[in-house]
Amino acid sequence: MSWTDERIATLKKMWEGGSTASQIADELGGVSRNAVIGKAHRLGLKSRPSPVKAAEKKKVVPKPKPASKPVAKKVAPRPAPAPATAAPAAPAAAPPAARPDSNNPSQPMPNRSTDLPKIVSVGPGGFLRQGPGDQQPPIPPAPPRRLVPAKPDPSIADKTSLLDLSDKVCRWPMGHPGEPDFHFCGVAVNPGFPYCVEHCGRAYQAQLPRGARRPPPPLPFGGPRVR
DNA sequence: CCCTGATTCGC
DNA sequence: GCGAATCAGG
C-alpha cells in the first residue's frame, strides 16, 4: 500500500489521538505496525508516552549488528541526542473514580463513609455517579474495576481538523476515518470525558477478569473492516 | 511470551 | 521514502 494523503491523515490523527501503532496499522490495513511507526517518525510525529510504559527510557546501545555485514557502511557517529523529551501534556487521566484506598485521615473512626471524593460522572462500567447534592448514601468502596479504554477510544481524538470537535462535544467516531460518512458523535460530552454519556459507556468498561473477557463488545465502527 | 514504541539499514 | 528486522522495556 502507498501512503496516500488520506492514509497519512488517518495515521496522524490516530497517532496523535493516542492509538497504538498496532491499532493504526489495523485500521489502515495493508501495513504493518512497523510501517506505521516508521511513517509516523518520518512525518515528524514522535514519541508519545507508550501506553504500556510510564517512563520510556531508551538507550540505544550501539548494537553490533548481527554479524552479517562486516562492511562498515557508514561511520555515522550519532551526535548526542538532545535530551529534550518534552513530556506532552498527559491526556485526561482516569476519572476520579472512587478509590478503595482509605484516603480519609480526617476520621480515626472506622466510619469511613464520610469524606469520599465527589464524583460527577456517569458510570456505565459500574463506577459511581454522584452529584454535589447527593453526598454519600451508598458509596460502596467497591472499587470499580480498572477502567480501560475500549478499542475505539484512540481512533477518535481528532482535533478540529476534520470537524468542529471541541472539548464540549462527543468525539466518538461514527464510521471509519476516510470514509465519506465518517463523522463524530458531537453531542454534549459527559463532563470530564471526551464523549457523551452514552459513548462513555462504550469507551470505558470495567476490566473483567482475564477469563471472562467478552471479545465482541460493540465496536464503535460498523465492525471490523472487511478486507 | 505478550505487548509497546524506537531505531537501523537494505531496498 | 519505505518497512522488516531488531532492539529495549513494561
From TrEMBL:
Biased composition (Polar residues): 101-114
Organism: Qipengyuania vulgaris
Protein name as it appears in the record: GcrA cell cycle regulator
Biased composition (Pro residues): 135-146
Stretches the record annotates as Disordered: 40-159
Low complexity bias locations: 83-92
Database matches in InterPro entries: GcrA
